Amino acid sequence: MTAAQVGNGTRFSARPVPDGGTPTRVWVDANMQLPELDLARCPELVVIGAHPDDETLGFGATATLLAGAGVRTQIVSATDGGAAYPELSVLQRYQLERTRQDELRRAAKVLGMYAPVSLGLPDGRVAEHEQRLTDLLIEILDEKPMGTWCAAPWRGDGHPDHEAVGRAAAAAAEQTGAVLVEYPVWMWHWSFPGDEAVPWQRARMTRLTAAALETKRRAARCFESQYTAPTLGGEPVLPPEVLHRLLTVGEVAFC
Ligand SMILES: [Zn+2]
Question: Biased composition, Polar residues: where in the chain (predicted)?
Fold first, then answer.
């Protein structure tokens, strides 16, 4: 059984987010020479995220390059990210979901993508609704042209929601003939270059332009709710070093 099938939840939980994870320079210094992701093979793109911001942080620069090349690009968010701060009341949680939907809409616009679709599954509990998510993704992908890219969080990303979305996307892609492209988000936090838990042999790297990176940076800035904790003294979901790392390491996809 590969690491992708069993998941890397234990690795992720062993590295609390406020601790910062693998420093950006470790990834930069490794200067990984990965084969290039061939964007010319993408007729249409559906980027699935577990939470609003996954698509931007993990695949935003690639998506904006494709959008700029005239490829139809669409975001599908499995949840509205209401569980980002567990200490919130029901009403505050509802407000956070509205905020995050709005942030996602603004980010999609910055990236040049179509208006996002939200599937409204419960944040933090996607695995309990994996079959429902698979069915919804099959419905979405069935209407797309042959060979449409279905980009989703990597099945071994460590975060339970990311892995569940990745598994649902893999099942939906298999059934519809879509091309599965798995992007890591939290892997950059808990893993390290050459880590055997990562399927490097399937890894491809997008050749990014300075303009695409700048667009990704602007889109990432839309997710303000993730950089500021809603309660005094609380921890934001995305500390500055996590965001810096995601904006620096480039974009890798497992194909
Ligand atoms: Zn996420």
Answer: 1-11
**10 Cα–ligand 1 center, Å:** 16
- CA–CA separation, 199 and 184 (whole Å): 11
Q: Which domains does the chain have, with CATH numbers?
A: 3-8+43-254 (3.40.50.10320)
Task: Give pLDDT tens digits for 65-117.
Answer: 999 999 999 999 999 999 888 888 999 999 999 999 999 999 999 999 999 99
- The β-bridge relationship of strands 117-121 and 72-79 is parallel
Distance 158 CA to ligand 1 centre (A): 10
Beta strands (DSSP E) in the chain are 44-49, 72-79, 117-121, 149-153, 179-183, 203-205, 252-254
* Residue 124 alpha carbon to ligand 1 centre in Å: 10
Q: Report the 10 Å Cβ neighbour count for 22.
A: 18
Q: Is the pTM of this model over 0.90?
A: yes
Helix axes 240-248, 210-220, angle to 10 degrees: 160
Task: Please list all protein residues whose beta carbon sits less than 5 angstroms from ligand 1, which is an ion.
Answer: 50-51, 54
